[in-house]
Amino acid sequence: MIRTERLILRPWREADKPPFHALANTPRMMEHFGGPVSRAKHDAIIDKQIAQQQRFGHCMWAVEKLNGGALAGVCGVRIGGHPDTPVPEELEIGWRIGERHWGQGIAREAAEASLAWGWANTDRPRIAAWTTASNARSWGLMERLGMRRRADLDFHHPEYPVGDPFGAMIVYTIDRPA
């Protein structure tokens, strides 16, 4: 568990599934993922994070606000690569903060804490992140975190059909501090 000034980043619990789906499955939240999805798809995402936590000791954690305990979204580091892409075993940082929490600096606070955790608890030489080119809020945060665009690592996400613009991933990385 990671604690920041305003947040707790923690492993997922089964009870998080309904509130996460309600938080994440709005048209604005799912704009860069192809639109709203079924509850089963979000449940599967959480199940994968629970398995990552058990296997590696980290995942894209649940982000909870300290004041009131509301689920604000997801942020963390996971082994996020995909076979047959330039990022098969990268340590990926990612975030998805509910729109009612936008504009409060929560994504940045959680991402900075996740990066610090990644450097302190893994021996990875870099941490990567990816999103669609249209998701300027996400890649803008990547740049504010000190990440740099790596067009040589861009790839098509295997969960989207070839030619689907939601599958065209742009990649950013940050090297381990000296």
Model description:
This protein is an alpha+beta fold and 178 residues long. It is built from four helices and nine strands; from the N terminus they run ββααβββαβαβββ. The protein has helices spanning 17-24, 39-56, 106-121, 136-144, and strands spanning 2-3, 7-10, 60-65, 71-79, 91-97, 126-132, 148-149, 155-156, 168-175. Helix 1 (17-24) crosses helix 2. The protein is globular, with a radius of gyration of 15 Å.
The main sheet comes to: 5 strands, antiparallel
Strand fraction equals: 25-35%
Measured on Cα atoms, how large is the radius of gyration? Answer: 15 Å
Helix content: 25-40%
Number of helices: 4
H/E element order: EEHHEEEHEHEEE
Rough outline: globular
Lateral arrangement of strands in the main beta sheet: 1-2-3-4-5
**Uncertain stretches of 5 or more adjacent residues:** none
User: What is the overall pLDDT average?
Assistant: 93
Label the structural class.
alpha+beta
Key terms:
178 residues, alpha+beta, five-stranded antiparallel β-sheet, four-stranded antiparallel β-sheet, 29% helix
SSE layout and pairings?
Elements (H helix, E strand, L loop, with lengths): L1 E2 L3 E4 L6 H8 L14 H18 L3 E6 L5 E9 L11 E7 L8 H16 L4 E7 L3 H9 L3 E2 L5 E2 L11 E8 L3
Antiparallel strand pairs: 1-2, 2-3, 3-4, 4-5, 6-9, 7-9, 8-9
